[in-house]
Amino acid sequence: MSRRSFLLPVFAVLLSVVLAACSTTDNRNLSGAAAKDALTTVLKSSEKKYLAEGGTETVYVGTKRYVLLYDPSAEADKQVAFQDLDTTDAPQLGSTDMIRITALLNLVSKNLSDKATITLSDNTFKIQDTEVSIQISVEKDLMTQAIVTTAANGANQTTMFATTYGFSKDAKKLLSSATPSPVPTQ
Question: If 0-12 CB within 10 Å is exposed, 13-18 middle and 19+ buried, where does residue 13 land?
Answer without folding.
Answer: exposed
